[in-house]
Amino acid sequence: MLLLTGATGLVGSTLLRHLLTEGRPVRCLVRDPRRLGAQRVRVQIALGDLTGPPSFRNALRGVQTVVHLAASIRDQPQVSIEELNGIATWRMVEAAERQGVERFLFFSALGASTHHRTRCLRAKALAEQAVRDASLSSTVFAPSIVYAPGDPWLTLLERLALLPLMPVSGRGRALYQPIWAEDVADCIVASLRAPAAESHTRYELAGPETLSHNDIVRTVLRSLGRTRPLLHVPTPLVSRGLRLLETAMGRRAPATWDEAELMEVSMTSARGAADADSGARRSAHGCASSSCAASASSPPSPAGRPTSCTPSGKPSSPW
Ligand SMILES: NC(=O)c1ccc[n+]([C@@H]2O[C@H](COP(=O)([O-])OP(=O)(O)OC[C@H]3O[C@@H](n4cnc5c(N)ncnc54)[C@H](OP(=O)(O)O)[C@@H]3O)[C@@H](O)[C@H]2O)c1
Predict the structure, then answer these.
(1) What is this structure's pTM?
(2) Percentage of residues in the chain with pLDDT exceeding 70?
(3) What is the atom index within ligand 1 of the atom nearest the CA of 110?
């Protein structure tokens, strides 16, 4: 049995589809099973919350492998980013050790460090440390920005593109290597198919192109067929404005400063797309392997649309 947390999120929902296609028995730790959509009848459900460690014990019963994706880039009512991303991971991996879990796969982020400027990436660094120190086989994936059609961030950019000027927090110079959620899921599946590592493995998941925040915004505008001048809003103004918005709207705020700040820090890998490419290659057994591996790492088309392989090996466009 495999326990998946974060199955209702961007990466988790994509991964769940891949796992179920493979016929793997999956249990999902979720706050609200309705958010699993049609997949909820194809999995075991464990009701739980990152803030409730007792729910981990039930969820982990009879589990050999954990894929821990659940996380949050904004505070939740009564719970901080640090608890959701750092302490909860430490508690989850501890519970997994106690229950005799064999493998633990965890999602951190590129650039995470205990001295990082953002709260989220400081918490991720501590979580990585807890996973690395655990006495079970562990794999950490550190992705750059992950995207998929209609994801919350692209949707926000599409909405902002309706304005006469396209606002960008700060100078927009932070660099990213965006990677498609389907390619990320392929890498996880490839890792699960391989025999468990003796101790600890770490993969950096980056796409083939390095783009600044400005480049990404321009790519989205181009794909929407809109021309808008970028309006660079000074960081202190964004920070103050979003903090005020959060105070006024609480959890309904469309964006928070902690989220916006993540678009002011680079998330790149010196290894480029190498780790993601080899993961996609290994998982692409259903495709003619060379063509599929190549497409997993090919740069976006002029319209900013990456191509990838369907299980039948036919190229498809996610946008
Ligand atoms: N997306 C990226 O660009 C990116 C970049 C670097 C690293 N990562 C990491 O990759 C992993 C997957 O990211 P993602 O983009 O798929 O995240 P996501 O779309 O934001 O999904 C987050 C998931 O965590 C669950 N969750 C949040 N708070 C919870 C709580 N208190 N208790 C239980 N579950 C909770 C959510 O469930 P609900 O449906 O109940 O809210 C959702 O399933 C995360 O660890 C993330 O930090 C992502």
Answers:
(1) 0.90
(2) 89
(3) 6
